[in-house]
Amino acid sequence: MWLGSQAGAGIAAAAVVGTGAVAFLLLLLLSLVAKQLLRQRRPLGFPPGPARLPLIGNIHSLASEQPHVYMKRQSERHGQIFSLDLGGISAIVLNGYDAVKECLVQQSDIFADRPPLPLFKKLTKMGGLLNSRYGRGWTEHRKLAVTSFRIFGYGQKSFECKISEESVVFLEAIDTYKGKPFDLKHLITSAVSNITNLIIFGERFTYEDTEFQHMIEIFSENIELAASAAAFLYNAFPWIGAFPFGKHQQLFKNAAEVYTFLLHLIQRASQNRKPQSPRHFIDAYLDEMGRNKNDPESTFSTENLIFSVGEIMIAGTETTTNVLRWAVLFMALYPNIQGQVHKEIDLVVGPNKTPCLEEKCKMPYTEAVIHEILRFCNIVPLGIFHATSKDTVVRGYSIPEGTTVITNLYSVHFDEKYWSNPEVFWPERFLDSSGQFVKREAFVPFSLGKRHCLGEQLARMEMFLFFTSLLQRFHLHFPSALIPDLKPKLGMTLQPHPYLICAERRC
Ligand code: HEM
Hints:
Structural class: alpha+beta
Organism: Gekko japonicus (Schlegel's Japanese gecko)
Radius of gyration: 26 Å
Largest sheet: 4 strands, mixed
CATH architecture: Orthogonal Bundle
Number of domains: 1
Helix content: 40-55%
Bound molecules: protoporphyrin IX containing FE
Strand order of the largest sheet: 1-2-6-3
Protein name: Vitamin D 25-hydroxylase
Shape: globular
Cofactor: heme
Keywords: Heme, Iron, Membrane, Metal-binding, Monooxygenase, Oxidoreductase, Transmembrane, Transmembrane helix
């Protein structure tokens, strides 16, 4: 009887504890939901935007179609500057040339920050260069990178020869396929990454270096994952990082592997280094670290060196590679355009001489084709997210400090105020009536303002030299007129789906 009553009391106590635990969990959940709903309140005077769902805001819409296309469509309804709710993260989207210029150029200081989103914080601690906040860290790293690009890259006359030498290796590798169908992606990636490698490490890697190729592949997978719905969800609810499965875990795993590999490459490149006699970016960075070693505020560190090297490498490789992959695809798709490029190359360069940058001004049609590929294909359709560093007002809207800013560069390149029939691929839009190349104001593939692409000059050299060398030697066509899917594969960058090409020697 006594035992029985004791057991009963135990059960009752367990029931009370159980109910208490459930009540506690419910309360916790309710307070989390309430906190999230509060975060989702639209700031006063903020631009309007599409309807939002509780908790996730507009994240679901970004996952349902190509985000840049969705945003352009929304701008037709809500205006060139509208807002999005990324699950409690307030964002504005800038659409069309006028809006992008008004913010990135006319208020360049205020719009030069990067948002401290949980994913970027986790991957780069907002250090390095590309993801760095707008402040001393960014200024120091950008200055060093610009100087290094000049000294070890395009500032030297011999650098053009190095790109040409890489072109020779690239063309020889293509030749081994003897006109049979193959996927060019690997060869273009290797050739393009080697140009950046020369500046960063002072050496190139062979096309058979599987370790290096693997690192580029997983890094590039992260560029794709960083724009996925999983990444947006992680930014809104970083606690999902505790789940041991999901795309965010793949992102973290890849990032850790890349970090270790880069550290190894940096150690290898800095062997036999003579302080104050830099041979490449890494030496220059280590010199800078040495000079600042007694400054506790200095932002130069081994960790930031690794982040900067990774960012410059991937920013340089992923973009230029995709431009050239689209260029090959469009040349095969439009044989008449390819024919005109062939004609210009034959006329200006001839069949045997190596193409050089000096000839660029005599090749307006080739220049126009490269520009139209950059406009039409929108390699970085939403740029890299910016953030406001102060409260500001644009077109009468109040934009608080810390707002995430999305620059819809795709919408600039399809802005009907500046481009007629933007949905048509038409290189002639970059030519005047006498066939001379003309610059177009609303051409912004490298973005605008303080954070504009640091590698623009290098990318322009590479695109021209690789593209003209390729077309000087080869005629490009799809195997048995098999036209590949033209829809881009989505990610931070837009790339074509894998496709096969036949490269037949012209001479
Ligand atoms: C056709 C090729 C390229 C395109 C279309 C491109 C495009 C862009 C765009 C749109 C941005 C974002 C700018 C912003 O935040 O507003 C950017 C930033 C950047 N790009 Fe490029 N890029 C290309 C090639 C390169 C190359 C070759 C390098 C270096 C090797 C490079 C390094 C960078 C870096 C470091 C940033 C970050 C700048 C900063 O935050 O201050 N890019 N690029």
